Amino acid sequence: MTRRGWLLFVAISIIWGMPYLLIRVAVRDVEPGTLVFLRTSIGGLVLLPFVARLGGFGPALRRWRPVVLFTIIEIAVPWLMLASAEQHLSSSVTAVLVSMVPIVGVVLARVLGSAERATRLQWLGLVLGVAGVTLLVGLDVGTFSLLAVLEIGVVVVCYAVGPVIQARHLADTPALPIVAACLLLAATGYLPYAALHVPHSLSGTQVASLVALGVVCTAAAFVIFFALIADIGPARATVIAQVNPAVAVLLGVVFLGEAFTRGMAVGFPMILVGSVLAARRAGGSAAADQSIRTVPVAVANTAATSPVSSDGSSQSTSTSSSG
User: Fold this and answer.
1) Rg (CA), the chain
2) Distance between CA atoms of residues 169 and 89, nearest Å
3) Which end of the chain, N or C, is less surrounded by CB atoms within 10 Å?
4) pLDDT in tens, 185-224
5) Alpha helix (H) residue ranges in 76-145
6) pTM for the full model?
7) Per-residue DSSP letter, 302
């Protein structure tokens, strides 16, 4: 990997590990629905000039049905659930739970018959991942809200299903117009709610968190990630899906004073190892597998993203995870 590639990789790994912390700060005084509106509207508006340079929203309009479905599954529902859950869960725990997305994505691929027969290592990965979540929740059960954990479960399933929609219906369309259209569509949907739930007061830190979510973790992140794909290719770029949760945990512990619990110490490594093993393809590693293109969407956050090839067109995806 070139020096430029490493710089881009480090930048996007940090950026997509940040949303969990920023959301945790913002939801102290901002309703989850209002937070989704602010993040999507800021991100969508920032991307508008880039879309204009590419010729506008024609590709998104021609595929409006899957675009609407993708928006609901990949942005509107999971971002709301993520913000709601972080009213009760720490950003660190949230990130660890969301790291289950690759495992759920592999299970989904098996159910839909779009993946080859699972190997022993893949089954071991699935078992390790489930065991990791069980230990995480079990050891720290006294600190968790069951409803919040279930909300993260919805996030994980949505992040696993969204790329299937993208791969089947949007894979041959330019990514940037699709992403901007999805963000602006989600913002339009949440506008009535946000208009009725305007925050009474916000601290400077919360305002900064909202701006950073929209500008840095959504709009700028897309531009950086596209550059990374062009530099190192889609398969190698997917390694960030395993780095983001670790960044989120570190940020939560350092900046929010969140505890690094026994459950996290035991469950987090098991989930990460399980994700790597479950995503492996028979006869090769996940990093070398060109058929596996995992992109954090959501960006929390994971943040919402869309996989693209080095020429700017979308690629097929099998799993997705977000910060």
Assistant:
1) 18
2) 35
3) N
4) 999 999 999 999 999 889 999 999 999 999 999 888 877 8
5) 77-85, 91-98, 101-111, 120-139
6) 0.79
7) E
